[in-house]
């Protein structure tokens, strides 16, 4: 029997393998650039981002200032490099919180399927899911005041049910398979089977989802900082740069253009990378161990 | 079907109670003394005591919760500390901006995503599909508030087709009010429409690979006919989930976008209240938005059952 | 189109996808009122031949050759003309009735769609026609209303709906691709009888595709045998079955009727596995919110399995044989009665003592789901050591693994490969090696050869008999296939609705069944010698 069905061919990325392959590498390159800029900013930026130079304020892009300067005369390119660091840190830690809490919860729920703990975990997930990250951030800020840490926490909490549901759903599929039964016949318990047999098979989808949540985290951080619930001055952040540019962008559009493009490219890169990895790691296309 | 609806309604009620407990706990219990949180560190002791008495904070947390929750049920959200007006009235005024904006954006999202998703799935691998997939890839990556700023730059500042912000109010007529909401709605809708297009496309493609599509083709249906008659309805099941989620993103997104366009909606209210430490207002708006999200989840559950007979009670 | 030719003619049909040839110079014909069996193992191209006739080849496929139906050349027809033809002049039914129907459309609408799509009447007329056709295939609307959805029907009923939608417009040709492979034997017999009746009544040609010689034997007037994309043998059924000219035909027959050499049994063996009044029930909810109902899946089952014995357990799907198997393995608790292995009770869960666990291992049906895809064979084979108190050291382990691999006919070097590198038959050998590695006394074999092609099946059955002889193993062999059970078991039990209705020596039970259900099962099982017994078909 030929596996491909006769009416539809195979799904996946348009244009088949070549486009997906190109997407993967473009994505990897963009993400690499983004990470490199963030890391480099620790040791070197073209200008000091805290140095105010009113004489050089609101300049357009030039050889001296590649992306121009803001209303305090700070170098936009340097600020974007440091802003990459903020975005990276917030999104990375938020994904870490989501995975670190959500994956064990999902594994537990799947291992105890139908039990009261499964029910409790899933209902708690539904409850958290009813609170968009923005509302979580609003509540935290209302109590503790604004900070970048709030943004991390809010996005992180929002990520927990995402990973818990994904993990549970995928793990349930594996619990149906006979190799789990064979392990049980050998006397292995549910916890051991979850770690030894289920979790390693979830790596692929977790990597893919992690990439997607990472990109959503960058968008969310930018949004929160834009409305003042995230990173606070003097910490440069792409979202806050956009907020500050708002009163000036009719006469200095570069102030809004470059931070926005940075977000766009970082998110685009992560999405392309995620889609590319999904196509690469899709178990239906032959499981590459 | 009725039994299913009742069951879901019960679960809706429980979710609301749980959510209200979370909000109450986060905003009234965690801060310790909400009065101190509202007034800040420099507050006088007698002012604090007066505020505590005014807010009913001198009683136990259980009694306070029932007071608050009972008030919510009656539509009594309390009195804003900053403005000394009923919170319910403040919210109602603002809701008439935020809710129409979110619904407008949802309508645009559906109007864009369904034709685009169907076209991409029908012409998979061809130019149409590649173009749609490329555009949506960009659409997902664009931050909506930045896209909103670009729209203002293009259509308000350069072309002068729309005003750059503000809201004339519904008293000025439906036309001008909708016009004021158009750019914000587009900015909100584009990223969500991109997501939905991709979800619909992949759900359709997944469905087109099912055995029953082959059966339908063997009956003599053309590719187009199987897409419309068989694939679309089955693909709606995952698509509905996303639409439900999107509504909550649109509500949250509306709150951010209002800042770009200086719209007097819930977003402006919530950020002002945070700045003024008006926790009662924050609490009420959060609760209202959470209620909206839970309600939409409930409606999506009902829609599932309408689409998928397997979820209805077997006879 | 009244040409000289009637029926379906396929000549010189070649299909390739990319550079890979799928079909090479295939030819056969189906006359009106004739049943043409197409037989082959997986990869033989039998299904692709059907898709070529239907014009439903994958888009990437290239096709050459001539396909005519009633004198009309349909091989080179446009997609639009093929759409008009499909459902109208050719109907097709498929292997998997559980997924062949749209889950969100009523069965009436799906049958009526065939009528509507070809413009043969209004919506109301189409529904009336659907009701007639469903009645004709044995689903009278007063028992199974048109407003039912597929999930409310059994597998056999769904296959009848698919058949109804294929024959609603009385096509000249019906293609049935493994129409009964997913069904129980008694349901299979009913569906085959239905197809035979429809062919007779409508004078329709039937192209019956199957991997199972016996299914085709009782139905087909003529048979075409395919292998690796080519026709290797063809002719009237009886002549072909008698002559067995081609070596591959001979090999297929030999594999289908293969019986491994008998395994001598020790005199008066002690009982190894004892079941006494075992009960197992579970609560089923119909949907999320339906009333929970108690299902008694296993009802008061008692039996003894002697050391060194091979005991068969047969029954149709849902009879409780798998539930019973899970209870014996200690995966599920029993609700009543007792299971003892070598005198000690079997408990569910991790509380069972290791010396009890090591006595028993399992081999499952699915050669794909039985192994963790991320583990190498070495790790897969080491897993049962978990059941031991004193697992062997690395050196002894390596020796044991290479011994186990060579025991099942694989190479020691295979230990370092991943499971996806093996064929279905090889995977079942690995599953057997895993079961063997800690030298258990009892192996529970749950449909171990059902997913395998006949030639591979024969080899695996030989291997099982050989290992039993060598290591004095006991088997509990769960299967739905009476032929396989006859070949490899000493005694057999027949299970129905949670109860053992008949038990005894295999030959005796299968040749002189006492219980009505056993008789029905045996009568429904397709027989390879059908064309030879009946003489010529009428």
TrEMBL record, chain A:
The reply to whether Membrane figures as a keyword in the UniProt entry is yes
- Domain ABC transmembrane type-1 per the UniProt entry, residue ranges: 84-274
What are the entry keywords?
Cell membrane, Membrane, Transmembrane, Transmembrane helix, Transport
Query: How is the protein disposed in the membrane?
Result: Multi-pass membrane protein
List the CDD domains hit by this protein, alphabetically.
Answer: TM_PBP2
Q: Which GO terms describe its cellular component?
A: plasma membrane
Q: Gene3D superfamilies given for it?
A: MetI-like
GO process terms (BP): transmembrane transport
Tell me the superkingdom of the source: Bacteria
Q: Which InterPro entries match?
A: BP-dependent_transpt_permease (IPR050366), MetI-like (IPR000515), MetI-like_sf (IPR035906)
Membrane-crossing residue ranges in chain numbering: 20-44, 88-107, 127-158, 202-231, 251-274
- Family per UniProt? Belongs to the binding-protein-dependent transport system permease family.
How is this protein named in the record?
ABC transporter permease subunit
Q: Which organism is it from?
A: Oceanomicrobium pacificus
Automatic annotation (TrEMBL), chain B:
Q: Does the keyword Nucleus apply?
A: no
Q: Its membrane topology, per UniProt? A: Multi-pass membrane protein
Q: What keyword terms does UniProt attach to this protein? A: Cell membrane, Membrane, Transmembrane, Transmembrane helix, Transport
Question: Looking at the keywords, is Membrane present?
Answer: yes
- Pfam families registered for this protein in UniProt: BPD_transp_1 (PF00528), BPD_transp_1_N (PF19300)
Q: Which domain of life is it from?
A: Bacteria
Mind telling me which GO cellular component terms the entry cites? plasma membrane
**A GO MF label:** dipeptide transmembrane transporter activity
Q: Which residues form a coiled coil?
A: none
Membrane-spanning parts? 101-122, 134-157, 177-196, 235-257, 285-307
| Domain ABC transmembrane type-1 intervals | 95-300
Compartments, record wording: Cell membrane
**What does the similarity note say?**
Belongs to the binding-protein-dependent transport system permease family.
Its recorded name reads ABC transporter permease subunit
Which species expresses this protein natively? Oceanomicrobium pacificus
TrEMBL record, chain C:
Keywords, sorted A to Z: ATP-binding, Nucleotide-binding, Transport
Determine if Lipoprotein is one of this entry's keywords: no
Q: Does the keyword Nucleotide-binding apply?
A: yes
So which domain of life are we looking at?
A: Bacteria
One annotated GO molecular function is: ATP binding
The family database entries (InterPro entries) matched by this protein are listed as: AAA+_ATPase, ABC_transp_ATP-bind, ABC_transporter-like_ATP-bd, ABC_transporter-like_CS, Oligopep_ABC_C, P-loop_NTPase
Q: Pfam families, from UniProt?
A: ABC_tran (PF00005), oligo_HPY (PF08352)
Q: What is its main location?
A: membrane
Name its cellular compartments. Answer: Cell inner membrane
- Membrane topology, record value: Peripheral membrane protein
Output the GO biological process annotations, alphabetical, semicolon-separated: peptide transport; transmembrane transport
Q: Which residues form the ABC transporter domain?
A: 8-253, 273-522
* SUPFAM superfamilies reported in the protein's UniProt record: P-loop containing nucleoside triphosphate hydrolases
**Annotated GO CC locations:** plasma membrane
Family statement drawn from the similarity comment of this UniProt entry = Belongs to the ABC transporter superfamily.
Q: What protein name does the entry list?
A: Dipeptide ABC transporter ATP-binding protein
